[in-house]
Design goal:
alpha+beta, Beta-Lactamase, 5-stranded antiparallel β-sheet, 6 helices, 5 strands, 61% helix, rod-shaped
Length: 242
Amino acid sequence: MKKVSLRWKVIGMVVVLIIGLSVIIALYINSVVRGFFEKELQRRGIILAQQAAKSAENPILNMDEASLYELVDRVQSSGDVDYVLIEDDQGNLLAHTFQTENVSDKFVKANIPQTGDTLKIAKVIYRGIPYIDIAVPILGGELGTIRVGISLLRVKKQVNQIMKSLFVIVLIVLLGGIAMAIIFANSIVNPIVHLTEVANKISMGDFDVKIDVRSNDEIGELAQAIERMARSLQLAIERLRR
């Protein structure tokens, strides 16, 4: 079995510790940041949907389709919004921002506020893309509902940008940690290696070997003990020779 030196054991333990802590911190930050961005986008979407619901009242009462389409286009272009649709109280589409005219009934009915709700928020999937869907009743639901959709891919993109920056920081910390681990390992291992060589020379009868360890810790105490042992052995052998 191949021997692994103490130096590499110490370095390996430090590297594993840094990587482990980095993974835990990265997962925590990912969760916190994702939650923050989702809440922030949701907050903006609620404000836009509530304002649009108020603006949609007169065009619906006047059956002004052109104004409704102008409204949904304006809301969509305000930023962060991916789609807007307005349905009447029967669930029929009055206006929307989708390029196609064929919007599935399943999607149209995916997020309908119940009676008495001031808004309803749901996560829906449309054509394979997840969205935060914010539905606000128009005039308490008597005139229908306006829905604002915000893609969760926006959140993923922002989180990925932050995680890339975090990865660079972790890499710098890892490299710094490895450098510190090497310095730390050498400060422990080099004296031990030196004391091992001294002990081997003493075992071969060389009692004049010099111990070059002057640290004020357990390794320094070990060096002093080996020095005392060498002197004691030398005196004992000299007495036996007499």
